[in-house]
TrEMBL record:
<dbReference type="Pfam" id="PF06240">
    <property type="entry name" value="COXG"/>
</dbReference>
<protein>
    <submittedName>
        <fullName>Carbon monoxide dehydrogenase subunit G</fullName>
    </submittedName>
</protein>
<dbReference type="InterPro" id="IPR023393">
    <property type="entry name" value="START-like_dom_sf"/>
</dbReference>
<dbReference type="InterPro" id="IPR010419">
    <property type="entry name" value="CO_DH_gsu"/>
</dbReference>
């Protein structure tokens, strides 16, 4: 089952700062809901462990994240896949673009797609969609707060 979502955040920081944050494993770890570990592998890959509760199912996903279409400081594509044991799997990606929206303001826009399978997919599309959108909004909101206050 797939979920498509998109959104944007106005970040009170120059585009270079936002770009740096999007490429910093510590920042990403702090912003990804349920993220336990996030470590840089090769140049453009990261490995992660994320624990999430979706409806009645709590799952711990082990996965890999890759960055592609890298165009500093304008954006990239981030994609990943995680396996949650008997709970199932989740995979997805997002195109993230940055645009200067003023001297100290950056507009961060994203278009994302998530797919889930296994037990999680049996929870129903409304729950999966609302949870996916909530998690995406939470990530970008945390990122915004962290950059703006940093």
């Amino acid at each position: 089952m797939a979920v498509d979502m998109s959104g944007e955040e106005r970040v009170a920081a120059p585009i270079e700062e936002v770009w740096a944050a999007l490429n910093d494993p510590e920042t990403l770890k702090a912003c990804i809901p349920g993220c336990e570990t996030l470590e840089r592998g090769d140049d453009d890959t990261l490995s992660a462990v994320v624990s999430l509760k979706i409806g009645p199912i709590k799952a711990r996903f082990n996965g890999a994240v890759a960055l592609s279409n890298i165009d500093p400081p304008r954006g990239y594509t981030i994609s990943g896949e995680g396996k949650g044991g008997i709970a199932g799997f989740a995979k997805g990606g997002a195109d993230v673009s940055l645009t200067e929206a003023g001297p100290e303001t950056t507009l961060l826009a994203y278009t994302a797609r998530a797919e889930v399978g296994g037990k999680i997919a049996q929870l129903g599309s409304r729950l999966i969609q609302s949870t996916s959108k909530k998690l995406a909004a939470e990530f970008f909101s945390r990122l915004n707060q962290r950059i703006s206050s940093g």
